[in-house]
């Protein structure tokens, strides 16, 4: 029975900012990934694609005639653990002060 059941696996994703000349071809971008946000004023689209397909998708997007430029998100490369940089005492200091204020 375990052979027939599928397990849910989280796909690693990467954000791409696709700068376009016109938003008329927005539906064409949906085949490359998940369209998260569209800015009609600044004419860019935030697109999420699978991590393993990033370089292949960037090359394909750059070949499209309505695409001006493709930028890759660097957020997954940044260490988001700031506890070491602040120190544990500084990180919990705000929480301790709020509890003392409620007790008074």
From TrEMBL:
Any one of the GO CC terms: cytoplasm
Keyword list, A-Z: Cytoplasm
Subcellular location, record wording: Cytoplasm
Pfam families in alphabetical order: DUF2129
The keyword Repressor belongs to this UniProt entry's keyword annotation: no
Family note: Belongs to the UPF0298 family.
Keyword Cytoplasm appears in the UniProt entry: yes
Transmembrane spans: none
Protein name: UPF0298 protein TK11N_09230
InterPro entries: DUF2129
Native source organism of the sequence: Tetragenococcus koreensis
């Amino acid at each position: 029975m375990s052979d027939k059941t599928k397990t849910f696996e989280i796909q690693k994703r990467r954000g791409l900012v696709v700068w376009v000349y016109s938003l008329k071809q927005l539906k064409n971008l949906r085949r490359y990934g998940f369209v998260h946000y569209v800015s009609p004023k600044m004419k860019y689209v935030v697109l999420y694609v699978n991590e393993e397909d990033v370089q292949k998708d960037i090359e394909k997007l750059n070949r499209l005639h309505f695409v001006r430029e493709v930028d890759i998100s660097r957020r997954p490369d940044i260490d988001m653990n700031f506890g070491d940089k602040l120190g544990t005492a500084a990180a919990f200091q705000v929480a301790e002060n709020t509890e003392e204020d409620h007790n008074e």
